[in-house]
Amino acid sequence: MRPRHLALALLVVTIWGVNFAIISLGLRQVSPLGLAVARFTLAAFPWVFFIPRPKAPWRLVALYSLFIFVGQFGFLFTGMKIGMSAGLSSLILQLQVFFTIGLSVLLLGERPNAWQAAGALLAFGGIAVVAVNVGGDVTLPGLALLILAAASWGGGNIAARRISMHNPSVDVLSLVVWGSLLAIAPLLVLAVLLDPDGLATSFVDLDWVSIGSIAYIVYPTTLFGFAVWARLLGTYPVATVAPFTLLVPISGFVGSALLLGEAIEPWKIGAAVLVIAGLCINLFGRRLFAASA
After folding, report:
1. How far apart are CA 182 and CA 170, in angstroms?
2. Distance of CA 124 to CAs 45, 75, 87, 187, 226, Å?
3. When you count CB atoms within 10 A of the terminal residue's CB, does the N or C end of the chain come out lower?
4. Are the CB atoms for 149 and 71 separated by under 8 Å?
5. For residue range 132-145, what is the model confidence (pLDDT) as tens digits?
6. Chain centroid offset of residue 36 CA
7. What is the C-alpha end-to-end distance of the chain, expressed in Å?
8. What are residue 135's DSSP bridge partners?
9. Which of 32, 19, 29 has its CA nearest to residue 82?
10. Model pTM?
């Protein structure tokens, strides 16, 4: 990978990791579903007037939006609000890899290999460590919602896979912008039905921290991050680019410690080691075994 592209990959995963601490700052004043509505409204407008819609069936784009944006971020923001630290959220969300594998088996007929199964067991062992340490900044409902967010991301990945099968050259940024547009209405309906008071007060007298949080979540994290990632995936093999996401929880823990003062207890380090080790086995196990054989 060229030095410039390496720097961009490291920048994006750092932005994505620190984003969890930024979300926590935004949730101090804005309701979870209100924050999701703001995110995708600003990610869609005015860009839908300049970026052509993705060349894919609307049904698949709608499914992608429902899982990746409505489900993932609805569960993520709510889970963080009711009881999940930013650092742990950045870690648990990486379970999307294994939900993607499981759903690909059920829906696409793919067959997982032994390394993927072993990696999943190890990673879910890390989640068990989190579960037995509930209390303080971690609650069981918050953990459950984060796992649902990871499952939703996995469902969105399957929808994206279907889209790429229909059109391998689909523009990912176009998919993000138009998917954001389709996410606004269902998120707004959910906010009105589930938390109308929170939605009504979310955007009254916003302070600069909340405004900055929303701007960070929309522009560097969503539009810049996805655009750069799509360019990298179009330039290099997926196996070269995908492993960089292993750094997201690391920057998530560091960002949470620096911006929020979150303590990094030994059990959190243990959980992170198990999850990241599971992801590494999933990504590299077969190649490492073949190289050592």
Report:
1. 17
2. 38, 19, 17, 29, 27
3. C
4. yes
5. 887 767 899 999 99
6. 13
7. 27
8. 138
9. 32
10. 0.89
